[in-house]
Design brief:
The structure holds 2 protein chains of 2 kinds.
Chain A (H helix, E strand, L loop, with lengths): L2 H21 L4 H20 L26 H31 L4 H4 L8
Helix pairs in contact in A: 1-2, 2-3
Chain B lengths: L1 H11 L3 H15 L3 H29 L2 E4 L10 E4 L1 H22 L4 H5 L2 H17 L3 H19 L5 H32 L4 H9 L4 H19 L7 H5 L5 H26 L1 H28 L3 H22 L2 H32 L10 H4 L1 H15 L5 H15 L3 H27 L17 H19 L2 H15 L1 H9 L1 H6 L2
Antiparallel strand pairs in B: 1-2
Helix pairs in contact in B: 2-3, 2-6, 3-4, 4-6, 4-12, 4-15, 4-20, 4-21, 6-7, 6-12, 7-8, 7-12, 8-10, 9-22, 10-12, 10-13, 12-14, 12-15, 13-14, 13-19, 14-15, 14-18, 14-19, 15-17, 15-18, 15-20, 15-21, 17-19, 17-20, 18-20
Classes of the chains: A mainly alpha, B mainly alpha.
C-alpha cells in the first residue's frame, strides 16, 4: 500500500471519529459541524477508490495518454456532486438551527429534543 | 408497427415523471395567486399520472423500457429503467400524490400554502419518481437527496416549535443513513469499478472473494433500513411524523419509508443475491421485531397520528419479511403490499386529520361520537382500517395473502406466524381508534353543538377515492396481481435486466 493511501485512511478515520464525537454532543451547532465533517470524510474516502489510488495520474485524454496511466475521472465527478449536495444541506441545516434556537432560546439538544407526547 | 413506434416514443420520454413535476413546481412558485398555483400543480401532477398509466400499459404488454439519456451508451451515461416494479411504485406515488394534493387544498391552511407547500410537494414527488426510475446506484443516491431535501422543508413548513424540535432527529438520522449509503456507493465503486446497476449485476457475480460483497450488502442494508424505518433504527419516525400538517404526514406515510424498501427490492436481488441469502436470518428477525414492536407501540398511543405512525413501522415489517424471502413471488408480493399499504395509510392519516379538525385535538380520549355525526367518514375509516388489517375482500387481504404465501413456501414458518399474530394486533389497534373516535359517546365539550361540522368535498373526495381504490384492489385485483408477479420477475431476473440495459453485444464480453 502506498504511504499516501495509508495516510488518507488515517485522515478519513480521524474525520469520521471527530464527526461522530460532534454528533453525540448536545449542542445544535456542533451537530451541524459534525454532519459537515462527515460529508468531508466521505468525499476523501471516494478519492481513495479511484483506479490509480492516490498516485498521481495523467489527464484522461483518449489517444494522448495510455489508458493504464490515466487518472480515473469518475470518483472526482461523484465527489463534486456529493460536495454540492452537502453544501446545500449544510446551508439548510444552519438555517434550521437558527430558527430552532430562536424558537427555544437555546441550542442545547436536551431542551430542544421532542416534547413528550401529550397523551400520558 | 404502430406499437413499436409508441414504445419508442415512450422510451424517449421516460424522464417525464421527473420533469413534469419539476416544471409544475417551478411554474407554481411564479404565481402568488393560490388558485392559479393550485391549478398548475394539480394539472402537471395529473398529466404525470396519465403518462405513467400509458407507460404501464405499454410495459405490461411489451416488457420493460430503457432510456439512455443523451444517447450515451449504458455504463457511461445516465440510465432510466422502467420495469414493472418501478411502474407499480410510480402508479402508487402518482395516485397518492394527486389525492394528497387535493386534500391539502381543503386543509384551510393558507399560511402553509404561502410557504410554497404545493411546489415542495411536487419536488418531493420528482425525487421519488427519479429514485424509482434510476438505473444507477449513484443516481439513486442523488434522487434520494432530492426527495429528502424537499421532505426536510415540508416537515418544518410552518416552523412551529414542535415541528422544529421533531424535525432535527428526522433530519440528522436521515442524513446519517444517506451518508452510510454514500460510503457504500464509494466502496462499491472501488470494488467493481462501476455504479451502473446492470454492469454491477455482471461484475459482482464475478467477484473473486465473496466476503467484500457481504460487507457492502450490510452497508446498503443499514443505510436503507434507517430510511425504511425497521426495528432497531425506526426511532426517527414516530417522533417526527405527528408534527407537520396532516397532508404532509399522509404523503410521507405513503412514500418515505416505501422508497427505502423499494431501493432494497431493487438493489439486492440484482447485485447481492447470494448475500441476501446469507443475511436472511438477520433480516427475518428484524422484520418480525419491526412488526411486533411497531404494533405494540401503536397500541400504547392515544394520539391518533402517533398511533398511525407506529403502524407505518409495523407494516414495513411485512415488506421486510417479503424482501428477506427474496423469491420472485415474494418481491412481487412486496410490490403489491407497498401499493396497498400506501393507499390505506394515506387514507387513514387523512381521516385522522379530519377528526383532528372536528375535535380540535389529536387525543383519542377527547373524541367520540363520529359514527353518529359523520356516518360516511365512519364507513371510509372502516374500509381503510379493515384493509390494513387484511380482511377479505379488501386490497390488504390480497397483499397479505401473497406475502404470507411466499413466506410459507420458503419455509419461514416462525416469521409467517408472527405476521399472522400481528394482523390480530393491528385489528385491535384499529378497533381502538374505532371505539374511541367513532363509537363511544362524544365527550360533552367535544362536539360543537350549534354548528355541526360539514365535511368539505375537497377533503372527503380524496379519502373516498383512496378507500374505493382499496376495495377495487381486492375485488378486481387480477390485473394488479399479474402486474405484481411481473414486477417480481423483472426485479429478480438478472440476465434479463443486464440484457435490457447493456444490450446484447455487451452481455457476453463483460470486461
Amino acid at each position: 500500500m502506498p504511504l499516501s493511501t495509508l495516510l488518507m485512511a488515517i485522515v478519513v478515520g480521524w474525520l469520521f471519529g471527530a464527526a461522530v464525537y460532534l454528533l453525540l454532543r448536545r449542542s445544535l451547532v456542533r451537530l451541524v459541524l459534525g454532519l459537515a465533517l462527515l460529508s468531508y470524510a466521505v468525499s476523501l474516502l471516494f478519492f481513495t477508490m479511484s483506479n490509480t489510488g492516490l498516485r498521481p495520474g495523467v489527464p484522461p485524454i483518449i489517444n494522448a495518454t495510455p489508458p493504464e496511466a490515466m487518472t480515473d475521472p469518475l470518483p472526482q465527478a461523484l465527489v463534486l456532486t456529493a460536495i454540492v449536495i452537502a453544501f446545500g444541506i449544510t446551508a439548510f441545516l444552519l438555517a434550521l438551527a437558527v430558527r430552532a434556537s430562536q424558537a427555544a432560546n437555546t441550542d442545547d439538544m436536551d431542551v430542544l429534543s421532542p416534547p413528550p407526547p401529550d397523551d400520558h | 408497427m404502430a406499437e413499436t413506434a409508441l414504445r419508442q416514443i415512450l422510451s424517449y420520454t421516460l424522464t417525464i415523471p421527473v420533469i413534469l413535476p419539476l416544471i409544475g413546481a417551478l411554474l407554481g412558485t411564479l404565481f402568488t395567486n393560490l388558485r392559479v398555483r393550485r391549478l398548475i400543480c394539480l394539472t402537471t401532477l395529473a398529466a404525470t399520472a396519465v403518462y405513467v398509466v400509458l407507460l404501464t400499459i405499454a410495459v405490461a404488454q411489451g416488457g420493460a423500457l430503457v432510456l439512455q439519456v443523451g444517447n450515451w451508451p449504458a455504463p457511461f451515461g445516465v440510465t432510466f429503467v422502467a420495469d414493472m416494479l418501478s411502474l407499480l411504485m410510480l402508479l402508487m406515488s402518482c395516485g397518492v400524490g394527486v389525492a394528497v394534493l387535493v386534500y391539502s387544498f381543503g386543509n384551510g391552511d393558507s399560511e402553509l400554502e404561502r410557504y410554497a407547500f404545493h411546489p415542495l410537494l411536487l419536488i418531493q414527488l420528482m425525487g421519488v419518481h427519479g429514485a424509482f426510475l434510476a438505473g444507477d446506484v449513484f443516481n439513486l443516491y442523488v434522487w434520494f437527496e432530492v426527495l429528502l431535501t424537499a421532505s426536510f422543508a415540508l416537515i418544518v413548513a410552518g416552523s412551529s416549535r414542535a415541528q422544529l424540535q421533531a424535525g432535527i432527529p428526522y433530519l440528522v438520522l436521515n442524513l446519517l443513513s444517506s451518508t452510510i449509503f454514500l460510503i457504500a456507493c464509494g466502496l462499491l465503486y472501488g470494488v467493481a469499478g462501476t455504479l451502473n446497476l446492470a454492469q454491477l449485476t455482471q461484475r459482482m457475480a464475478e467477484l473473486p472473494s465473496p466476503g467484500i460483497s457481504t460487507v457492502l450488502a450490510v452497508l446498503f442494508l443499514l443505510g436503507y433500513a434507517i430510511k425504511a424505518g425497521t426495528f432497531p433504527l425506526f426511532s426517527w419516525l414516530p417522533v417526527s411524523y405527528h408534527t407537520p400538517p396532516v397532508a404532509v404526514t399522509a404523503l410521507f406515510s405513503a412514500l418515505m419509508t416505501k422508497v427505502g424498501v423499494y431501493a432494497l427490492l431493487r438493489i439486492f436481488p440484482l447485485i447481492f443475491p447470494d448475500d441476501l441469502a446469507v443475511l436472511q436470518p438477520l433480516v427475518l428477525w428484524a422484520a418480525a421485531l419491526t412488526m411486533v414492536v411497531g404494533v405494540l407501540g401503536a397500541l400504547a398511543q392515544y394520539n391518533v397520528r402517533r398511533l398511525l405512525s407506529f403502524h407505518i413501522v409495523s407494516q414495513v415489517g411485512y415488506l421486510l419479511l417479503a424482501f428477506a424471502i427474496g423469491t420472485p413471488a415474494a418481491i412481487g408480493a412486496a410490490a403489491l403490499f407497498i401499493v396497498h399499504v400506501a393507499i390505506a395509510k394515506a387514507a387513514l392519516f387523512m381521516i385522522g386529520g379530519v377528526a383532528e379538525r372536528i375535535f380540535g385535538t389529536a387525543d383519542l380520549r377527547r373524541m367520540g361520537g363520529l359514527a353518529r355525526a359523520h356516518p360516511g367518514l365512519a364507513v371510509l375509516f372502516a374500509i381503510a382500517a379493515l384493509s390494513l388489517a387484511g380482511i377479505p375482500p379488501l386490497g390488504g387481504f390480497l397483499a397479505k395473502l401473497y406475502v404470507l404465501q411466499a413466506t410459507f413456501e420458503a419455509g419461514a414458518y416462525l416469521a409467517g406466524g408472527v405476521a399472522l399474530a400481528v394482523s390480530l394486533l393491528t385489528t385491535l389497534s384499529m378497533l381502538k381508534i374505532w371505539y374511541e373516535a367513532f363509537w363511544k359517546a362524544a365527550p360533552d365539550a367535544a362536539l360543537p353543538g350549534e354548528q355541526p361540522y360539514r365535511l368539505a368535498p375537497v377533503l372527503g373526495l380524496p379519502i373516498a377515492a383512496l378507500a374505493l381504490t382499496g376495495v377495487l384492489l381486492g375485488v378486481f385485483g387480477g390485473p394488479v396481481v399479474r402486474a405484481a408477479e411481473q414486477a417480481g420477475r423483472d426485479a429478480t431476473d438478472r440476465a434479463a435486466y443486464v440484457r435490457l440495459v447493456l444490450g446484447d453485444e455487451l452481455v457476453g464480453g463483460g470486461r
